[in-house]
Structure to design on (808 residues):
């Protein structure tokens, strides 16, 4: 009726990269490796209930008044100290902005920087939600591949030489979504040098940085920033709980001012009550001890996933071996279309799901990869689901094998 | 350093319409009529503390997991029923979207509709935060004046004939911010007929609709909508508490789908924990009884303001007499510049503040009006502050009076 009234950014004929991502399978035996949700059996519910009560009892009515567009200053100070300690980023509460999850932080950076058609570099594959947020500002994308130690910097420089107008690079350096890959510290320093040389902004999105199974977090890309060119983004969704909707970013100078300006216009401020509760939680609890428990669980879940990949998947499937985070990435032989596979009667009958690779590419042009998320499932369920999925993959591989 | 990298929507040389709005006067005797905050002495703190506990105890860990981009379904159903009862809008939970305050609802509608340069009609004066949100999408504005019964529809139609490309009209029909004016029911019906005829969308922003001092809320503009052209927006910030950051909108069809698409990309979802707490609050408490208490207080505060305007302000000042809401609007003789006045030594010494009219006009070209907010102050404080402010206004009026 009124398609003519909608903005160009909203093409009603193209579904959101984020919607329709997950198969809704009501079968009680269904196992989903699709959703990237943290394991809710590990949520510190009682401690957070107490923290809400403490925050309300301490601050009373004023807690429920309009607060601050930048967010609770005590919580900002704690997060600044945290990224100082674990990421070697020297910053203060004044440079931290609390956002509605990491997703809003990405959206605000895109909003502060992008005019329609502006050139943006992204890792391929990359986080589907970042593509959705960037899509709102109608960029021209350039995909840059990943290596075992992160972004392919030679490929990036080639792209920058060809497209010197690129103004933003989006990267997930730690336990990358969707591949689980981590960027080396050497590459982080080199990436900042490239940003200085070619005049672009780096959006460093790092929600999984604390979840290295056997290692401390690496220095953030932001720690090498001397020109205020890096915006660091993280979130409490993966190390505390998603419905608190508390992400955060660290930025400097004019870029910080621009982000604050678009933030104020977008929603005035985030949820002050929740910020105060998180702050009270951090006063009364040891977040690092909680994170250590998470790491132990996710380590075990990841091991179950990798073991199942070895046992049940066809030899033709390549997969990553993450050292942290929630995800494994599987590459199947060219010619397999994992979107189509998801709709076959046999796959539907197997009641097991994943996210097809098309969703992680700006041009949706890679069809033979899949993201598997293990964070919400027990090792036993992972084994059961992967056995079913592996059978389907073997059938699919036989279908495209050369016959001679 | 890198102004060249910022988006055109972020002109670092132009401050946000929302920032710098409020004078920060640390003097203990300072009285601000600027901030539009609700009266926190009326906040139902104990009931909300109980509601958070109830929500957490009832739902446990799952409450803290990713929930729903549209928002808590039980709360949406209650809000749909509420606007059915009080605004005669026939709708369901499926058409309600929970947002981060009403501000985000406005921003999402702008995001779903506007390409740079698109034509938008706004009441003048209008809500400063709406201008900030719309500014993000770089519209061409047309201001339409207000009459005692709301938007001047003849002036609107003249504007529409001249600019048939106008695709959006933004209006605050109930106890308008900043003037306190309410649109008549007859005009609401006529406005929808104009939207149908001239093919535009109406953004009906109604955060104050419940706060008529002596009257029930009027039928919403949305209640006359037969083509899905009206997006109704409201908020719990003014009738419950702002830091819950819970606004909501009602939309239909493709417009709803477009809003949901940009919402998902912007921040995934709002704060599920808070939604569940509000839902528990509404289960255990009578919101209408709470609103009745608010109305009695704001009625008394408004009466103190109007009385003080009569007593202390110069005869040359015209002002509105609101029947609900938080605001009064004063018009001074042409030639008075209320922005400049705010910076005079005498005014600074009086330690009293207001929001100058420039902030409420897209072109910032009206200099002789001011918004006075009485919601956060007792009648005695209102009287004291208005006496001081009136003295300054009398001096200012003498300064521009013709001398013969």
């Amino acid at each position: 009726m009124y398609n003519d009234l909608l903005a160009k950014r909203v093409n009603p004929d193209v579904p959101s990269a984020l919607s329709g991502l997950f198969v809704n399978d009501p079968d009680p035996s269904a196992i989903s490796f699709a959703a990237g949700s943290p394991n809710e059996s590990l949520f510190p519910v009682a401690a957070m209930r107490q923290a809400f009560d403490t925050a309300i009892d301490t601050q009373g009515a004023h807690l429920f008044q309009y607060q601050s567009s930048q967010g609770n200053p005590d919580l900002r100070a704690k997060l600044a100290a945290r990224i100082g300690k674990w990421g070697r980023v020297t910053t203060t509460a004044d440079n931290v902005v609390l956002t509605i999850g990491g997703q809003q932080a990405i959206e605000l950076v895109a909003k502060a920087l992008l005019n329609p058609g502006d050139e943006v570099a992204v890792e391929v594959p990359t986080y589907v939600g970042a593509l959705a947020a960037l899509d709102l500002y109608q960029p021209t994308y350039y995909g840059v591949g990943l290596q075992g130690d992160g972004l392919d910097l030679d490929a990036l420089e080639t792209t920058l030489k060809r497209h010197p107008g690129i103004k933003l690079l989006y990267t997930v350096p730690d336990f990358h979504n969707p591949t689980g890959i981590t960027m080396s510290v050497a590459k982080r320093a080199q990436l900042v040098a490239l940003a200085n040389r070619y005049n672009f902004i780096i959006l460093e999105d790092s929600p999984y940085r604390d979840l290295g199974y056997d290692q401390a977090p690496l220095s953030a890309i932001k720690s090498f920033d001397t020109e205020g060119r890096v915006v660091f983004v993280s979130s409490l969704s993966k190390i505390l709980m998603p419905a608190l909707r508390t992400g955060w970013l660290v930025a400097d100078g004019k870029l910080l001012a621009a982000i604050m300006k678009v933030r104020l216009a977008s929603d005035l401020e985030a949820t002050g009550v929740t910020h105060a509760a998180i702050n009270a939680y951090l006063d009364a609890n040891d977040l690092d001890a909680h994170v250590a428990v998470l790491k132990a669980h996710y380590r075990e879940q990841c091991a179950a996933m990798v073991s199942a990949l070895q046992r049940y998947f066809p030899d033709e499937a390549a997969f990553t071996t993450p050292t942290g985070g929630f995800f494994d990435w599987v590459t199947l032989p060219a010619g397999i279309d994992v979107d189509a596979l998801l709709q076959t009667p046999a796959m539907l009958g197997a009641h097991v799901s994943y996210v097809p690779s098309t969703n992680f590419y700006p041009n949706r042009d890679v069809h033979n990869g899949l993201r598997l998320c293990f964070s919400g499932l027990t090792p036993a369920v992972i084994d059961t689901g992967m056995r079913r999925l592996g059978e389907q993959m073997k059938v699919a591989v036989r279908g495209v094998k050369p016959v001679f």
Remarks:
- The mean pLDDT of chain A is 95.
- Residues 51 and 283 of chain A are 9 Å apart (CA to CA).
